[in-house]
Amino acid sequence: MRKLVSEGSSVIFISHKLDEVLEISDRVTVLRGGKVVGTEVRDSVDRRSLVRMMVGRDVLLDFDKPKTEPGKTVLQVENLTVKNDKNLEAVRDLSLSIKSGEILGIAGVAGNGQRELAEAIYGLRKPVQGKVVLNDKILRHADVAQRIKGGVAFIPQDRRAVATCPSLSITENVFMKNSYSMYLPQSPFNLNTRAMHRATKELISDYSISTPSTKTQARFLSGGNLQKLVLARELSTKPCLIIAEHPTRGLDIGAMEFVYKTLLAHKERGAAILLLAGELYEIFRLSDRVAVIYEGEIMGYTPPDPSFTEEIGFMMAGSKRGEIS
């Protein structure tokens, strides 16, 4: 981009990543709600002032995690081996556990088995071997319904193609997993649509989803509002286990703050949370423990402390923690 500019081209750079914006731009224009909030020369703004323009208030991303004493083990993964879409082993003999009121962050370079691990735990992908145990009960492989009934929530990284049905309404997306709770007692094959719309309106308010109507198709929502819709559907049932795969990817800083606070609130409630994120700062902010994955294997565990960044880097490159001098 700098080469293009030096040759006389004009570049419009659109991004949620403030560090990139501040590094690259000569002028910065902020949009909020489809309207221009203001335009500033690069040297006259910093991250905090840009955030205030974007959100309309100060945003707090660095906050104290709620102090909860981990309870009983909710999730136990034992010797799990999973293949990817190319029929190659993506997860190799992996074991981990998460307790109630605990967030386990999985750190690693993208493509090292994170997606396959999340899908296998949720039942979307059948493992080659190993077992998944939820609250002392062994889960059947590739049985998503059993996990839903057992209180497992899944926030996948692709909110448009995987997490939602774009052509369905917000109400239909909210109840696509738990519509059984909305059948009319006198007619078990008919849904109580009034109750569904009423419950959806409450979730729209609770999760601050910006939409004209409960009947609006999901494809018309922005990325941030679509992610809030996924959170509303997955977390409103108060799950015992939450699998969060890149929950803030592509979100603006205001939506990121909302996701962080929501996940921490459920941790405080007692949920066990598996967090798979691409950014170490996000893992440090939310996690109680950090597990590093490389080519489908856990290389070791560290506390969620930036002082362990170098050690985590070695493990992300394939060194086991015991081998790092």
For the sheet with most strands, the description reads: 6 strands, mixed
Relative strand content:
15-25%
Structural class: alpha/beta
Structurally, the number of domains stands at: 2
What is the CATH topology descriptor of the largest domain? Rossmann fold
What is the subunit organization of this protein?
Answer: single chain
User: Percent of residues in helical segments?
Assistant: 25-40%
Query: Ranges with pLDDT <50 over ≥5 residues?
Result: none
Q: What is the CATH architecture descriptor of the largest domain?
A: 3-Layer(aba) Sandwich
Q: What would CATH call the homologous superfamily of the largest domain?
A: P-loop containing nucleotide triphosphate hydrolases
| Envelope shape | globular
CATH structural class of the largest domain: Alpha Beta
Strand order of the largest sheet: 8-11-12-5-13-14
Give the radius of gyration. 21 Å
Distance between the termini: 41 Å
Number of helices: 11
Mean pLDDT: 91
